[in-house]
Design a protein that fits this description.
- Strand 4, helix 5 and strand 5 form a beta-alpha-beta unit.
- It contains 8 helices and 9 strands.
- The protein is of the alpha+beta class and 251 residues long.
- Strands 1, 2, 3, 4, 5, 6, 7, 8 and 9 form a 9-stranded mixed β-sheet that branches.
Length: 251
């Protein structure tokens, strides 16, 4: 028996703000509220696809222990056509599909967050299974995921393609989140090289990271998967985050 119950935003719109709050909790400050596409489109997930947004809750209450976000998109099933834009691209794809009145052909995961006091209990894998079930219930065959590997920030100078291929002595993938995806049936499909783009003035980057950035150059900052590029003369810092595509068959 599951020690959680599944709640969708469609069934419990009164919990949407709680879902949003849990989803915002674990990210580096520079990622929260600073990606232009995410800022523009994220809230439309709950407006357009409330039945794709869900949470896991304690079985005897409404205390949320995990949250998941996904959306229907158009994709031809060929891994080679997955966009470099990752999260930004699938958000734009999903909204464009609705606005064009087109039928979706697949779905994309966007985020899974587990409450800090419930980590290590298998809830991330449970969320992926729930998400896959939601997608299957809508008649879609595939679930893709632009995955943000949880330990990549420790290796910001290693190319994502190389990092995503690392394996442990037992043959399983090195990164915990990629490993979880693989364990529930996900197959690696390449790098989403421009999954999120964050731009800000140098002073903003210094505030977000707590690091002085006195000259133009590449900066390794806490929580970033790759260096941030700082242009002091132009007073601009740019962070282009790569993610890694995993493809699941919905069930």
């Amino acid at each position: 028996m599951n020690d959680y119950k599944v709640i969708t935003a469609a069934a419990r719109p009164d919990l949407i703000n709680t879902m949003r709050g849990l989803g915002a909790s674990p990210w580096p400050e520079f990622l929260v509220g600073h990606d232009e596409v995410v800022n523009r489109l994220w809230d439309r997930l709950y407006e357009l696809w409330p039945d794709y947004q869900f949470a896991l809750a304690d079985p005897d209450g409404d205390d949320l222990i995990a949250v998941g976000n996904c959306l229907p998109i158009r994709w031809d099933g060929n891994p080679a056509t997955l966009p470099p834009g990752g999260i930004d691209a699938v958000l734009e794809n999903g909204v464009a599909t609705v606005e064009a009145g087109a039928e979706p052909t697949a779905a994309s995961a966007l985020m899974v967050v587990v409450a800090p006091d419930r980590l290590g209990l298998g809830l991330s894998a449970a969320c992926l299974r729930v998400m896959s079930g939601i997608v299957a219930d809508h008649g879609l065959a595939s679930l893709v995921a632009p995955v943000r590997p949880t330990e990549k920030h420790r290796y910001p100078l290693i190319a994502m393609e190389r990092y995503a291929s690392w394996r442990r002595a037992d043959g399983s993938l090195f990164d915990p989140w990629l490993r979880t995806h693989e364990r529930v049936g996900g197959i690696g499909a390449g790098v989403a090289s421009e999954s999120m783009t964050i731009r800000g003035r140098v002073a903003e980057w210094e505030d977000w990271t707590g690091l002085p950035m006195p000259e133009t150059g590449s900066y390794v900052v806490p929580g970033a998967l790759v260096p941030v590029e700082i242009d002091r003369e132009g007073d601009m810092g740019v962070y282009v985050e790569p993610n890694y595509w995993m493809v699941h068959r919905a069930r």
